[in-house]
Amino acid sequence: AQSVTQPDIHITVSEGASLELRCNYSYGATPYLFWYVQSPGQGLQLLLKYFSGDTLVQGIKGFEAEFKRSQSSFNLRKPSVHWSDAAEYFCAVGAWGTGTASKLTFGTGTRLQVTL
Amino acid sequence: NAGVTQTPKFQVLKTGQSMTLQCAQDMNHNSMYWYRQDPGMGLRLIYYSASEGTTDKGEVPNGYNVSRLNKREFSLRLESAAPSQTSVYFCASNKDGGEYGYTFGSGTRLTVV
User: Fold this and answer.
1) What's the rounded Cα separation, in Å, for the pair B93 and B34?
2) Which pLDDT score is estimated for B99?
3) Cβ–Cβ < 8 Å for A52, B112
4) Average pLDDT for residues A65-78, to the nearest whole number?
5) Quick one: which of A53, B42, B45, B51 could link to B58 by a disulfide (CB 3.0–4.6 Å)?
6) B104 vs A4, A44, A103: nearest CB
7) For A107, nearest residue in chain B (alpha carbons)
8) CA angle, B34 as apex, B42 and A103 as ends, to 5°?
9) Would the pLDDT of A99 be above 70?
10) Which of B30, B42, B107 sits opposite A90 (nearest CB)?
11) Which among A24, A105, A34, A28 has a CA at the least distance from the CA of A68?
12) Angstrom distance (rounded) from CA A37 to CA A51
């Protein structure tokens, strides 16, 4: 069964500083990987995704993530954080089977606080 | 497009009461899902539906039932609510193919007292 680990429950960074959120996954085949962001009281918004090709993927809001198969990781990065980036971030791994629905497994999330 | 619409947004139930959470999507997606979100536990899959007329259990199905009424609508029913079902519930849908990810509704915050 697939699983996702986000080792950092809470991270605080200063506005303008760089950011890296860690994500490690367990999956028996090539995974589909996603990062979602959730602002307080809101649903989840897709930031970026990886399913094949270039291991460095670009997403919305200036975020990027790098897939490293050897480390089973898919870390999220941003060069310069803005106060509006304060939110909870979820990494997810997907399993897709022929003729069946996809199923995403989520990590427990990392809450990002941005100080001014 | 409205995307995925969930109703109600908030609900308070007494232990033992029943209710149905509604979800509808207007993107012509085949697959739909119900997740619950609890602090420190991320999102856990309750039930999902690969297509109209089919449903399958996810990770935490106990205490819930679902109905895929048609391609657009996927409802979640609590027959006898328990305090352990206090949570935020999210509905999501997916276009066929893993590379698209899910589109989520804005959630239903349920409190069982």
Assistant:
1) 9
2) 66
3) no
4) 95
5) B45
6) A44
7) B42
8) 75
9) no
10) B42
11) A24
12) 19
